[in-house]
């Protein structure tokens, strides 16, 4: 198996996982709405599971499914010349690294604080839920 075909295979598996997350999200979301609005009986665990699967779907899709060429970019980026695009990319990359480095201590502090919090119905600790 070549590297290109292995990459395509992995990309298809990432899409499969995203589809599974969507399949986990959509029926639970509709079930929660039906029970809340038709029967006036909100079911908490469906709402929590729907939110959790939606968050993972967005994060997974952004990380592994959406290709760079499919991401939205400003028109000015595509209208710029090659050297300008490269400079904009370097500036953007450096800015992201600096912002992530600046926010890392606060993020770690918040995640460690959230270890005492858990989902109301599912009783899943938030620090475990998003630290995989």
Written account of the structure:
- This protein has helices at 3-38, 44-65, 75-79, 82-113, 126-129.
- The chain is mainly α and 132 residues long.
- Helix 1 runs antiparallel to helix 2.
- It is extended.
- The mean pLDDT is 83.
Count of helical stretches = 5
| Sheet with the most strands, sense and barrel status | none
Low-pLDDT windows of residues: none
Termini separation comes to 29 Å
Order of helices and strands: HHHHH
Shape: extended
- Work out the number of β strands: 0
Strand-pairing-aware structural class: mainly alpha
The share of residues in extended strands comes to: under 5%
Helix content: over 70%
Summarize the structure.
The chain is mainly alpha-helical and 132 residues long. The protein has helices spanning 3-38, 44-65, 75-79, 82-113, 126-129.
């Amino acid at each position: 198996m070549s590297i290109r075909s292995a990459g395509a295979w992995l990309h298809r598996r990432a899409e499969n996982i995203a589809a599974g997350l969507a399949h986990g999200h959509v029926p639970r979301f509709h079930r929660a709405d039906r029970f809340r609005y038709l029967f006036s009986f909100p079911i908490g665990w469906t709402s929590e599971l729907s939110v959790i699967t939606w968050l993972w779907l967005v994060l997974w899709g952004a990380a592994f499914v959406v290709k760079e060429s499919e991401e939205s970019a400003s028109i000015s980026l595509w209208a710029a010349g090659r050297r300008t695009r490269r400079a904009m990319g370097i500036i953007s990359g450096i800015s992201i690294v600096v912002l992530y480095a600046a926010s890392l201590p606060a993020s770690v502090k918040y995640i460690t604080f959230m270890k005492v919090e858990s989902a109301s119905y599912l009783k899943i600790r938030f620090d475990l839920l998003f630290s995989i």
